[in-house]
Recover the amino acids of this structure.
């Protein structure tokens, strides 16, 4: 009787485990189907374009956040980096770099993008140095950088907006608006950028020694160090990559709005964490997939836009997002317990 019952238990456990692993796709189908019926014009082409742009912003940050969380850390500064990088882009377009005596250096769109990306990577490097060299806890380090970056963004314009970022054809900066508003083969440029970054991140995570080291550090940092993994270098990379992703979002938002505001990016980090966790990234580190994160970003994006189209209060939207995060963490813990139970049952069957 015992031998007959054990395989059925293992089978049912395996089926439930599969459903838990596919929960993000199931959630995406569920919310999409619900809003297709409940929200007017949800299935319109115009709404898909707008929604895809919103999803792209969250997905960029969530991809960078996924690497950070897998390594066992957290990055609360990404929203502020978005605001700071947007202000840097606005400053370069409007003023360039003033050398004094009536001289200034002006930049074209490509140069502006490179400088802004380097700023994002530099802020990420500050996070990494605080954590790896000064042994500051990731939560505290990135919280401090959040305030510093937001303050720097405010100081750059005394809290004012940099408007009319149309650029100057004379300097080659007039193409800046195409980053957020342009299309290639009928698809927004920001989506093409997301595809490139997503494929790059997936390749790093699944096909390179660096990716394996990121998982190893998050799974067991001491064990990874003893096996020869350069833990500090790995942590530096994940925070710099997160800063890189945040810089891209700063560029896209400023381009879409044709303006930069120092408060841009507030609470963006919460959506990024929500998308990563919903996509199966474990907050305890060592587990997560880029594809799951992107799907999680779609769930958050569809949920947000659908609630707006239904006229749901922004206050209730915040409550619902919080409940989604809690549910994702609870389900993730249930999945871990079930995996352990199925593994033990499999070992008992073999014995």
């Amino acid at each position: 009787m015992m031998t007959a019952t054990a395989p059925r238990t293992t089978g049912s456990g395996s089926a439930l485990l599969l459903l838990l692993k596919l929960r993000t796709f199931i959630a995406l189908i569920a919310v999409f189907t619900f809003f297709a019926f409940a929200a007017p014009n949800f299935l319109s082409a115009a709404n898909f374009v707008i929604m895809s742009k919103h999803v792209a912003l969250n997905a960029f940050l969530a991809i960078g956040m996924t690497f950070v969380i897998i390594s066992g850390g957290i990055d609360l500064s990404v929203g502020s980096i978005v605001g700071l990088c947007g202000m840097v882009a606005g400053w370069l377009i409007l003023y360039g770099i003033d050398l004094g005596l009536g001289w200034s250096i002006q930049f074209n769109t490509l140069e502006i993008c490179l400088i802004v990306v380097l700023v994002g990577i530099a802020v990420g490097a500050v996070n990494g140095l605080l954590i790896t060299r000064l042994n500051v806890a990731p939560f505290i380090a990135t919280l401090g950088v959040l305030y510093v970056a937001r303050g720097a963004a405010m100081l750059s314009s005394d809290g004012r907006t940099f408007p009319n970022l149309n650029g100057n054809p004379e300097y080659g900066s007039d193409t800046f608006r195409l980053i957020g508003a342009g299309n290639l083969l009928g698809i927004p440029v920001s989506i093409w950028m997301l595809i490139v970054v997503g494929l790059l991140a997936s390749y790093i995570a699944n096909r390179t020694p660096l990716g394996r080291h990121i998982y190893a550090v998050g799974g067991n940092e001491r064990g990874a160090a003893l096996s020869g993994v350069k833990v500090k270098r790995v942590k530096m990379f994940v925070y710099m990559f997160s800063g890189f992703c945040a810089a891209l979002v700063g560029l896209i938002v400023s381009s879409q709005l044709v303006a930069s505001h120092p408060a841009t990016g507030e609470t963006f980090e919460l959506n990024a964490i929500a998308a990563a966790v919903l996509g199966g990234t474990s907050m305890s580190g060592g587990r997560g997939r880029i594809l799951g994160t992107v799907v999680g970003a779609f769930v958050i994006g569809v949920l947000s836009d659908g609630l707006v189209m239904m006229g749901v209060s922004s206050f209730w939207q915040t409550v619902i997002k919080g409940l989604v995060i809690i549910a994702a963490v609870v389900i993730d813990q249930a999945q871990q317990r079930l995996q352990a139970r199925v593994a033990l049952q499999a070992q008992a069957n073999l014995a």
Confidence is low (pLDDT under 50) at residues 1-9. Residues 21-350 form a domain with the ABC transporter involved in vitamin B12 uptake, BtuC fold (CATH 1.10.3470).
